């Protein structure tokens, strides 16, 4: 695992955007796994800037989603599908046909999870998966105690994660209890994992993930098992390393 400490979130965003641009220059049809939350936004802004200035042609790249809320109506502005289309797909000048995600509105959620795992494999697998980290060390929505071999499946959010994500909704009550997430085993199949963490609030989770034992109690520690994992942290998130 490579740990890169950058001065701030903007620098982290630029570094990762350049890594993504490099990948797409080598492999124009790359499948890019993206994450939601506030942390990766500087990556998407920097990458969209590079695209606008002609630094990379992403027109053949494909974008796939890490996780999704269950039960939000289609088109809800905070469904991760809506967020990824708004924050990533559209700014990169791509269309919905370049996007894949699990169906959080499916009547049969289990079948939707299995279908998404299959779709990722059939698309050739994820070339680069960008990850954030929860304050409890979760990746995607794999909360502590998730199996390190897990596949895409339905999970129940912890109260902590619902509270952390309540800022995107009008009230805590509106935050769904259930989600679909790529499993840790699914995430580990991506060819390159890039985790970005910024801010003091992530310092404990980063230290446990990078320097602690590999444990289902800290899902991001599974990155230690991956042959090509990069952890990009700002000074604040690195403060407990
Ligand atoms: C959610 C997402 C994760 C993300 C986490 C942290 O739980 N499912 O993928 O990493 O939030 O979000 P933020 O970057 O806003 O702290």
From TrEMBL:
E.C. numbers: 3.5.99.6
This protein's record includes keyword Manganese: no
Catalytic activity: alpha-D-glucosamine 6-phosphate + H2O = beta-D-fructose 6-phosphate + NH4(+)
Marked site: Part of the allosteric site: 146, 153, 155-156
GO molecular function, one term: glucosamine-6-phosphate deaminase activity
Protein keywords: Allosteric enzyme, Carbohydrate metabolism, Hydrolase
Active site: 67, 136, 138, 143
Pathway note: Amino-sugar metabolism; N-acetylneuraminate degradation; D-fructose 6-phosphate from N-acetylneuraminate: step 5/5
Regulation: Allosterically activated by N-acetylglucosamine 6-phosphate (GlcNAc6P).
Residue stretches making up the Glucosamine/galactosamine-6-phosphate isomerase domain: 10-225
Recorded family membership: Belongs to the glucosamine/galactosamine-6-phosphate isomerase family. NagB subfamily.
Record function comment: Catalyzes the reversible isomerization-deamination of glucosamine 6-phosphate (GlcN6P) to form fructose 6-phosphate (Fru6P) and ammonium ion.
Record's protein name: Glucosamine-6-phosphate deaminase
């Amino acid at each position: 695992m490579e740990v890169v400490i950058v001065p701030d979130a903007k620098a982290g965003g630029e570094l990762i955007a350049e890594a993504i641009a490099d990948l797409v220059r080598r492999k124009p049809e790359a499948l890019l796994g993206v994450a939601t939350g506030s942390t990766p936004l500087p990556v998407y802004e920097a990458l969209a800037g590079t695209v606008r200035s002609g630094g990379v042609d992403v027109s053949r790249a494909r974008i796939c989603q890490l996780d999704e809320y269950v039960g939000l109506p289609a088109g809800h502005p905070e469904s991760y599908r809506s967020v990824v289309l708004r924050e990533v797909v559209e700014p990169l000048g791509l269309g919905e046909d370049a996007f894949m995600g699990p169906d959080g509105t499916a009547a049969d959620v289990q079948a939707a999870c299995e279908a998404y795992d299959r779709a990722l494999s059939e698309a050739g697998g994820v070339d680069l998966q960008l990850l954030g980290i929860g304050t409890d060390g979760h990746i995607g929505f794999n909360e502590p105690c998730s199996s390190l071999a897990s596949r895409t499946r339905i999970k129940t959010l912890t109260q902590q994660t619902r509270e952390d994500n309540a800022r995107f909704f009008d009230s805590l009550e509106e935050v769904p209890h259930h989600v679909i997430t790529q499993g840790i085993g699914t995430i580990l199949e991506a060819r390159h994992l890039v985790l970005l963490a910024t801010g003091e609030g992530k310092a404990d989770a980063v230290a446990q993930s990078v320097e602690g034992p590999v444990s289902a109690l800290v899902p991001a520690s599974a990155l230690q098992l991956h042959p090509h994992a990069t952890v990009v942290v700002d000074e604040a998130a690195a403060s407990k390393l």
